[in-house]
């Protein structure tokens, strides 16, 4: 069974999904791929796991780096999960390029490097927005490229972290 809750935030209404123990999704209302992995039979119910997400988001939107991580279990291919793990290691208040992630993936996987475009596809399908910080990924020249929630929301999130003010 998959459970959902709605949380108001400075970037809009958020929909969070969980299996009761782990966070499976967090989407900004209206974003590209909104709730694309959400179980059609999900039930809106307040679960203890959602309290951890609320605390994390309250800290984050108060312009502080959260010092804990709610339990996350995103659905995706092994490649996507590898890229999302790299995203989780991007320090608060810093950015990284798609190309840098591609290089990190190549080193970690001991495979040939992947393309920045393939990384972009995985980043774009991240279903746990904000907590898995895909908003910290920028283009080769530091350009603010693509964000499923929209460039304005990406700017807003980066500004919360002290960037692009």
Number of domains: 2
Average pLDDT works out at: 90
Find the structural class using helix and strand composition: alpha/beta
Topology, number of strands: 6
Our Rg estimate from Cα atoms comes to: 15 Å
SSE order, one letter for each helix or strand: EEEEHHEHHEH
CATH top level assignment of the largest domain: Mainly Alpha
CATH second-level architecture of the largest domain: Orthogonal Bundle
Helicity, as a percent range: 25-40%
| Residue share in β-strands | 5-15%
Written description of the protein model:
The protein is α/β, with parallel strands linked by helices and 165 residues long. The chain has two domains: 3-61, Double Stranded RNA Binding Domain (2-Layer Sandwich); 78-160, Arc Repressor Mutant, subunit A (Orthogonal Bundle), CATH 1.10.10. The chain has helices at 48-61, 78-88, 98-109, 116-124, 151-160; strands at residues 3-7, 14-18, 23-28, 43-44, 96-97, 137-138. A hairpin with a 4-residue loop joins β2 and β3. α2 (78-88) crosses α3 (98-109), α2 (78-88) crosses α4 and α3 (98-109) crosses α4. The model has no long low-confidence stretch (mean pLDDT 90).
Question: How does the SSE layout of this entry go?
Answer:
Elements: E1 3-7, E2 14-18, E3 23-28, E4 43-44, H1 48-61, H2 78-88, E5 96-97, H3 98-109, H4 116-124, E6 137-138, H5 151-160
Helix pairs in contact: 2-3, 2-4, 3-4
How would you briefly describe this protein structure?
The chain has helices spanning 48-61, 78-88, 98-109, 116-124, 151-160, and strands at 3-7, 14-18, 23-28, 43-44, 96-97, 137-138. It has 165 residues and is α/β, with parallel strands linked by helices.
């Amino acid at each position: 069974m998959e459970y959902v809750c709605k949380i108001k935030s400075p970037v809009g209404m958020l929909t969070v999904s969980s299996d009761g123990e782990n966070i499976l999704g967090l989407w900004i209302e209206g974003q590209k791929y909104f709730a694309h992995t959400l179980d059609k039979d999900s039930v809106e119910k307040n679960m203890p796991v959602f309290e951890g997400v609320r605390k994390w988001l309250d800290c984050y939107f108060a312009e502080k780096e959260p010092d804990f991580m709610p339990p996350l279990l995103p659905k995706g291919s092994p490649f996507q999960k590898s890229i999302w793990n790299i995203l989780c290691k991007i320090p608060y208040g810093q950015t990284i390029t798609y190309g840098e992630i591609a290089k990190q993936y190549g080193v970690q996987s001991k495979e040939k490097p992947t393309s920045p475009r393939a990384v972009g596809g995985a980043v774009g399908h991240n279903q746990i927005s904000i907590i898995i910080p895909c908003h910290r990924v920028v283009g080769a020249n530091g350009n603010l490229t693509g964000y499923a929630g929209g460039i304005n929301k990406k700017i807003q999130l980066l500004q919360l972290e002290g960037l692009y003010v």
